[in-house]
Amino acid sequence: FDNGYSFLVNTTLYQSKYKASDGVVRNTNFNGNYLANMLATKEFDVTSNARFGAGINFTYGGGRRYGEFDEAESEAQKEVVWQNDGYNQNQYPDYFRIDIRLNYVVNRNKTTHEIAFDLINVLNTPNVLEYVWAPGVNANSNFDLRKQAGFLPFFYYKFDF
Predict the structure, then answer these.
(1) Would you give the DSSP letter of residue 78?
(2) Which of 2, 104, 107, 148 has its CA 20 to 30 A from that of 77?
(3) pLDDT higher for 114 or 20?
C-alpha cells in the first residue's frame, strides 16, 4: 500500500484429486487446475477522517469438473445422475469475472462507517454452474447448462464499533 494505491496479483496451479474405494484416482469436482486473481485499488483522502476508495478485481480460473450422464437413471429419477465410469473427466469452460467496488469510509472515535457499492460481474459473463435435468429445453437432450448469476449490483452499509 503506497500513496493510496494497492495491488495484489496471485496465481495458483494445483491438482485436486482423490483415490476412490475402487482404487482409481479421479479429479474432484473442483479440480480447475489453475486460478489467477488481480486486484487494484486507489484511496483518496476526502477529509482527515474520511476517504473514498475505488477498486477493480479480475478473476480467471479453470472450470469445474463433471462426468457423463446416466441417461436412463436420470430419466427415472428426474434429475441428473452421473455414471461412475468417467467420473469428472470432463471440464466446464473457464471461469472469468470482473468486479468493481466504490466505497466511502468515515472514521470516528470508537466507530467506523462504510458505505459501499459493489458491481459484481460487470461484464455479465455467463459462467457455467452445472448441468441440470431440464426435459424439453433442448431439442437433442434432457439436460441443460445452468449459468451462475450474471451482473449483480450490491449496496451495503457497515458500522464497526
Answers:
(1) T
(2) 148
(3) 114
Residue 22 has what DSSP assignment? T
72-97: pLDDT as tens digits: 899 899 999 998 888 899 999 999 99
Confidence band, pLDDT 50/70/90 cuts, at residue 15: very high
Nearest one of 10, 66, 11, 59 to 33, comparing CA atoms:
11
Task: Label the pairing between strands 111-120 and 50-61.
Answer: unpaired
Whole-number pLDDT of residue 142? 87
**50: amino acid identity, one letter:** A
CA 77 to chain centre: 29
Task: Please provide the DSSP assignment of 26-47 as one string.
Answer: EE-TT--SEEEEEEEEEEEEEE
Q: DSSP readout, 94-148?
A: PEEEEEEEEEEEEEETTEEEEEEEEEETTT----EEEEEE-TTTSSS-SEEEEEP
The residue to which cell 466505497 is assigned: 103
Alpha carbon separation from 56 to 2, 5, 109 (Å, rounded): 17, 12, 30
